[in-house]
Amino acid sequence: MKNIVLFGGAFDPIHFGHINMAKEASKQLDADIFFIPAKIAVWKNDSSPIEDKINMIQLAIEGEKRFHLSRYEADSQEEVNYSIDTVKHFKESYKDSRLYFLIGADQVNSFHKWKDADELAELATIVYFKRPDLELSDENIKRFKMKEISGGEVDVSSTDIRNLKSLETPDSVIDYIIDHRLYFMQRIAGYMSEKRLLHVISTAKLSYEVAIANNLKDAKKALIAALLHDIGKEMPMSEQREVMAEHFRDYLNYPPAIYHQFIGVYLVERDFDIHDPVILDAIMFHTTANSNMTDVGIIVHCVDKIEPTRGFDSTELINALKSSVIDGFAEVLKSNIDYYTKRNIDYRNDLQMACLNQYLK
Ligand SMILES: [Fe+2]
Ligand SMILES: [Fe+2]
Question: What's the rounded Cα separation, in Å, for the pair 350 and 194?
């Protein structure tokens, strides 16, 4: 390898911001990139296990020939990893390569405080990505001969992903988070039984698949809404009634079994601080449906009813939805009515009727 960029960080989890920066750095410096996850993020103690972070990096960089993972810091026995040790390790392992060391733009002004900063800058060229929101002083840039890289910006943070405010990371990483119940998934699990959680996961993955199959630009919103759609369902009915009386009085006379679609919205706003109208709307009408639904709302409503753990053969309905949201919706509505009629269930509330009048003419 001629040129190597050392890219250390918490990667908790890795996301498109990291990946795009790595791509830009690789292109502009004609370099291979080593992702070097830190064993623990020193500024917090609730970091996820290093093996999970490593697995997610591996998933995210799969197929990128110039991207590599380094376990150097993860496997180190030291209490604290200093960058200077990492750089020295790479200098020894890749004697003929030119080393670059990527730092965050927010660390440029304080770089002189790093351990052995001068030696570090001798062994590796310090590079950073320009950020329009940060005022950088020339002092350290000149003293340590730092090099600026531009482009590669994606407005996403690991914190946002942990909090389910964004899912701007590769699908393989999203699946990993869901399957290993990390971050937001751990929180969602706290609202429900294992059985319901499996239904939620199935609904979320299939909703996303359907949204992607329909080329929806809001596909990630379908995933987020589906992950959250049933978090109100296991709240004790007495509490549900109280929340309904206070926040959704208009729907208090609806069958209590559908309260949870409104309770879900209440909890999502209160506990997850998510206020996106498309997401909230999809949760709010996932049981009854409504008129004037968004594609995301239609998908979550339909998939909730037909996802595979529901225990009947829904392959045809799923395929219908995948080829067209609106045509598939009509098929699902017909099959719902069929189901209700056979079992003598009264489905004729105002919301459901508004939906049928518009979409099943
Ligand atoms: Fe539900
Ligand atoms: Fe559900």
Answer: 32
- The residues, ordered by sequence, that sit 6+ positions from 69 with a Cβ below 8 Å of its Cβ are 34, 35, 37, 54, 57, 58, 61
Cα 172 to middle of ligand 2, angstroms: 24
Domain enclosing residue 8, as ranges: 3-158
Residue 231 sits in the same domain as residue 289: yes
**Mean pLDDT on 77-81:** 85
Token pair for 95? 């004697």
Query: Residue 337: which pLDDT band, with cuts at 50, 70 and 90?
Result: very high
The answer to whether residue 166 sits within a structural domain is: no
Same domain, 210 and 116: no
* Number of structural domains found in the chain: 2
Rounded distance from Cα 149 to ligand 2 centre (Å): 46
Summarize the confidence of residues 292-299 as an average pLDDT: 98
Radius of gyration of the chain, Cα coordinates, nearest whole angstrom: 25
Global confidence as pTM: 0.94
Query: Which ligand has its closest atom nearest to the C-alpha of 303?
Result: 2
